[in-house]
Amino acid sequence: MSNSTFQRRAFTLIELLVVIAIIAILASILFPVFARAREQARKAACQSNLKQIGLAIAMYVQDYDETYPLGSMGYSSVQPDWYDDGNAHTAYWYSIFQPYVKSRQVFVCPTAGKIDYSGSYGWNICGTRYAGQANDATVPGNGFGWSPNHWETPTLSYLKLPSVEEPASTIIIGDPSSNGYNGNGLFLYPNSYNRIPVLHGGQIGPFNESAEISITDHTGGGNYLFADGHVKYLQASHVQANRGLFDVVKHWPP
Known about the structure:
Structural class: alpha+beta
Largest sheet: 5 strands, mixed
Helix content: 25-40%
Strand content: 5-15%
Number of helices: 3
Number of strands: 7
Radius of gyration: 24 Å
Order of helices and strands: HEEHEEEEEH
Oligomer: single chain
Shape: elongated
Strand order of the largest sheet: 5-3-4-6-7
């Protein structure tokens, strides 16, 4: 038998190039699929975070005579459950709820990551009304409140549970604006379309006011916690068409 019978045939250069091309085509198809699957997992983890925060809010409200806190409570205290440095810090909403959930990571959106102030999510301080508007100490807002100097609530005081007439359509906490303002990680501040979250499936960052740009990609959206405790993902285009979703009380004083 001839030795040539046992000779192995090597790949030609063209065959190798064809195989490489096929692998490249498959990779270009599969990588976006993997990226979308990873983002779906992050969005689900974000929704889980907000549900846990919703439970913390419900427990807090029951502990404090059916009264919601403000975004910034107007006092400073040592907060070992949050900063753990022995110094006094401003009592923001997240440090008030943190003892109920026993975790700081719950306040960080997996997609956004930790940003300024607390983590990621923002407290709906004023609804669609512009916070800091002239004479805001006496003009009712439509949010859960900013601070004792800037109530931004329909009652110009701490908001009570019975005041929320439509909790299933009232947003209390939401994802951060992914196109930037300096209150990210503290306040949900959707007084303009530029500050509506689009980070899930859309633009991510930058997270500062100096880099604020207009939303050009409306395919993304954000997760929102509603006053009745349910969490829902809303595309930016839907929120822009229904900005009343950010209102706390549907019939606040004019």
